[in-house]
Amino acid sequence: MKSTTQKAFAEDGAVLIEGFLSPEQLARCRAVFDWCLEHPGPFAVELFAGTEKETHNENANPGVVERANELVSSIPFGDLFADLWGSKNVWYFAEEVFLKRNGKGGRTPWHQDTSYLPWDGMHWANAWISFEGVPKPNALEMIRGSHRGIRYDGTDFKDADDPTVPLHGGGALPRLPDIEAERRAHPNKYDIISWATQPGDVVVMHPATLHGGAPVDATFRDRHTLVLRFFGDDAIFRSLPSHSDNGFTPAGLLLLEHIRHLKDGDPFRSPFFKQLR
Ligand SMILES: O=C(O)CCC(=O)C(=O)O
After folding, report:
1. pTM (2 d.p.)
2. Confidence class of residue 271 from pLDDT cuts 50, 70 and 90?
3. Computed from CA positions of residues 98, 37, 50, 174, in that sequence, does the dihedral angle turn out positive or negative?
4. Residue 260: C-alpha distances to residues 47, 99, 235 (Å)
5. What is the rounded CA–CA span in Å between residue 144 and residue 211?
6. How would residue 251 be classed by pLDDT, with cut points 50, 70 and 90?
7. How confident is the model at residue 254 (pLDDT cuts 50, 70, 90)?
8. Which end of the chain is more exposed for a tag (fewer CB within 10 A), N or C?
9. In angstroms, what is the span from residue 55 Cα to ligand 1's centroid?
């Protein structure tokens, strides 16, 4: 029988794992986060640069691979995901960092990670780790069960006024709805889940879940977040729209060389990805 946590992840696409990280483990996660900030790789960006929404973001820093592999091997993520998914094997994919500063970083627009990376299957998860206690109004938000629904085109993360401008275009994937605008007009239109978190808590989310990060504000001014991504047995390669090689996120471009051999439906495997179980 499924545990409440397994059921929540499978049905809702997200679950809060309270107190998963000890203070010592959290400090080591923070060291990896800080290393990325101090040694930005070629794909570090300021999203919405020069606007009130500016957010520092980096995906898959090539220089941090060994440190990150060491980190994820020393914390029981393998056991967590093996149990959560019912997977024999667990691999680590890569990290992402988000930094919203001085009460100004805006909302991370609603999106699904599966619009950016060629992934399919149930055995995928993001571990969202923030180093501050995050109040609910500033938390990561997810639409319940959306990982089992439509796979939308991505947002291009460039247009500060229209978060639905497609990443790929060409109609291969449906355009994102403007979830924020719709929710302002109809507060109950979407079943949105989010949690206030304490340092050490981990929000675990299936990356096909529609999600967005609420902004920081005058009372919660800074958010430092490390996202670690994992996959398991049933993870498969599913290509993005064919004209979209330039739509790969930088992380996708970097990691593409390690998965170039994969065809649609192939198990997502490469010796590049650290096996944890
Ligand atoms: O923390 C955020 O603002 C966004 C997080 C996100 O997009 C992710 O975890 O994939």
Report:
1. 0.96
2. very high
3. negative
4. 28, 31, 16
5. 9
6. low
7. low
8. N
9. 11
Give the model's pLDDT for residue 247: 47
Domains of the chain, each with CATH number or no CATH? 12-259 (2.60.120.620)
Place of tokens 């919203």: 100
pLDDT above 80 for 253: no
